[in-house]
Amino acid sequence: MALDYRIDHLRDAAKHRATVADRIWRAWWQPDGRPLADVDAALGKILIAEGFPFSLVASVDGQFLGTVTAVMDDIPERPHLGPCLAALWVEPESRGKGIGDALMVALQSRLKGLGFEEVYLSAKPRMRDFYAGRGWMLTETGVGKDGLDVFHRALP
Q: 150 and 142 in contact (C-beta within 8 Å)?
């Protein structure tokens, strides 16, 4: 049975701000030694931004399912590549149900509506099949200290 979830701008689902900050922090910022407060401050800037950057939240009956963020640059070694899909996260128990795909589609649609023509992302090599299988073009491998893959796609 498919979940009847919704995708909202974080501004319209602000009750999930602490959860979004926690997931981003645990997955990407904590391993680099950055404090949770830095993630929350970055989200605070996103919440007051007009149009871009933005964060989206998937939820069902008020329960957080996942998030994704659009920022201008998310690849420190390639600051000229942007905008970027960043921090795609789906709760472990909600994976495999199309939520990540829906978050990516919603992000791409918003970017297109804002006049962007392309989008980039970086990911660990273990995620290569996930993104390639969804139409992302692998453009570079072994980037930065984590040996990240860089992907690109034109916005439809």
A: no
Does residue 109 sit within a domain?
yes
21 vs 15, 42, 50, 129, 147, CA distance in Å? Answer: 11, 9, 20, 26, 25
Q: Output phi, psi for 148, to 5 deg.
A: -70, 155
pLDDT digits (tens, 9 = 90+) for 82-98: 999 999 999 999 999 99
- 11, 96, 155 from 66: Cα distances, Å: 15, 12, 22
In sequence order, the 6+-apart residues with CB closer than 8 A to the CB of 100 are: 66, 88, 90, 130
As for how many domains the chain has, the answer is 1
For the whole model, what pTM was predicted? Answer: 0.94
Q: Is residue 38 part of a domain?
A: yes
108 phi and psi angles, rounded to 5 deg: -65, -40
Sign, CA torsion 71/99/131/39: positive
* Upper half-sphere CA count for residue 44 (Cβ side, 13 Å): 6
Question: Is residue 70, in this structure, part of any structural domain at all?
Answer: yes
Q: Which CATH number fits the domain that encloses residue 71? A: 3.40.630.30
Residue 98 DSSP label: S
